[in-house]
Input
Amino acid sequence: MRGLVPGRRGGRRAGVRRGRGLTALVVHNEAALPGVLDALAHRGLSVPGDVSVLAVSPRGLAEHLAVPLSVIDVPSVEIGRIAVQMAVERQDEPLPAETRLLAPVLTENGSCAAPSAG
Output
């Protein structure tokens, strides 16, 4: 995406600068979350009153920001456990590539709401 800067500074610029008609953000960059919240506050926008924000990140991080965010958890411990298990299984014999999917887990912390009428 053109014009986006990773990290905190990028959060201040990503999408938020467009402002008009913005009703929700899904943020999949945990380093950008504080910047996104700063940018919204700087523009006088409240979460979730004006803009809903959903984080895709480790649950503990998103819950302890200035505004506790609803989060789709990235289960890093489980991902690591499965990766090690798959690597160990392939040490002695080659196995075909496989994909393992983990069910998403939503933790609601009140940062998402229906857009206001107007």
Notes: Residues 1-5 have pLDDT under 50 and may be disordered.
